Amino acid sequence: MVSWIRHRDLHILTVGGYTYTSDQRFQATHSPQTDDWTLHIKWAQQRDAGVYECQVSTQPVSFNATLN
């Protein structure tokens, strides 16, 4: 499952094809031919600038950790 997160407020925007934000300008699409996921922002505005992160959940769960 693929999720898109906005770093500014750690808001989950989409999970799979479902949009979690009430801002309907956000939409995730999947291209089965390439297995690519794309986050679309309709009518992007200056306030939309920032870092967006794509997270992929796997089964079984995969962990990456760094210990210092």
Please tag this protein with its features.
4-stranded antiparallel beta sheet, Immunoglobulin-like, two-stranded antiparallel ribbon, mainly beta, 68 residues, single chain, globular, 6 strands
Please describe what this structure looks like:
The protein is an all-beta fold. The protein contains no helices and six strands. It has strands spanning 2-6, 11-15, 18-19, 26-31, 36-41, 52-56. The strands form two sheets. Strands 3-2-1-6 form a four-stranded antiparallel beta sheet, with no helix packed on it. Strands 4-5 form a two-stranded antiparallel sheet.
The overall average pLDDT, rounded, is: 87
Are there runs of 5+ residues with pLDDT below 50, and where?
none
> Strands across the major sheet, in which order?
3-2-1-6
Helicity range: under 10%
In CATH, the architecture is Sandwich
- From the alpha-carbon coordinates, what is the Rg to the nearest angstrom? 14 Å
Number of strands: 6
Structure in a nutshell:
The protein has no helices and six strands.
Topology (SSEs and partners):
Layout: E1 2-6, E2 11-15, E3 18-19, E4 26-31, E5 36-41, E6 52-56
Antiparallel strand pairs: 1-2, 1-6, 2-3, 4-5
